Amino acid sequence: MDTRNELKNSKRIVIKIGTSSLTHPNGSLHYARMEQLARVLSDLRNSGKEVVLVSSGAIGVGAERLGCKERPKEVEMKQAAAAVGQAILMQIYEKFFSEYNQVIAQILLTKDVLEDSIKKINAQNTFNTLLKMGVIPIVNENDTVATEELQESIFGDNDTLSAMVAVLIEADLLILLSDIEGLYTQDPRDCPDAVLIDTVPEITDEIENLAGGVGSSLGTGGMITKISAAKIANNNGVNMVIANGENLTNIHRILEGEIVGTLFEKRTQE
């Protein structure tokens, strides 16, 4: 069975959606897309899949609510924006998911939780219990206290965090939804002849060199952080797909084995 067909059998799925996919270009929340996301993920749960959503957007949404014209640069302002934005995000997610009778939970993580053995086990148990009960955990970095992450961008707009979560819960598949179709041979914004790479069997130096650029002014993610996430996922037996988050039906298409976005194949254990 080829890997694309293998994705049909994915039982436990982590889906990460970036700030650019959750907001309009002016930074305001894209309610229609958030509602569609709730519908698609609720439908996956109804089909028997276990789903974890890693949602960016707290700092961007909070910054917009606080009247900032772009993503704050000072750590204190990032923390303030995150505190405001996270409450807004969860309020809206609760509204939309409840329309489909889907229970959600909020999990805020910092890097030390995933590196400390005891905290890691506790987090793992929490995820497993929620998934067993049919709940969709919504995960974000705890930006209000994680000054180390804010200053050094360790999680890279939640790309790395989503990969670490996928490994933590032993997911079958990680889907990164972004504002780009996938990994190209060249930057498609500058090169009209750029070709989308549909499958990456192994992350080589050449593949890493293809990554470049940054995300939107309200987000922090770029292709570099997505390649880093792919390495974490693939090295730990998790397939990963980068796809465009503008069309959320891509989630269903990926799980139906269609060639959507760029698939980074997990490494087989020897």
TrEMBL record:
Known EC number: 2.7.2.11
Top-level EC class: transferase
Residues annotated as binding ATP: 16, 178-179, 220-226
Binding-site residues, substrate: 56, 143, 158
Main localization of the protein described in the UniProt heading: cytoplasm
Subcellular location: Cytoplasm
UniProt-listed InterPro entries: AceGlu_kinase-like_sf, Asp/Glu/Uridylate_kinase, G5K_ProB, Glu/AcGlu_kinase, Glu_5kinase, Glu_5kinase/COase_Synthase, Glutamate_5-kinase_CS
Record-given protein name: Glutamate 5-kinase
Protein's organism: Defluviitalea raffinosedens
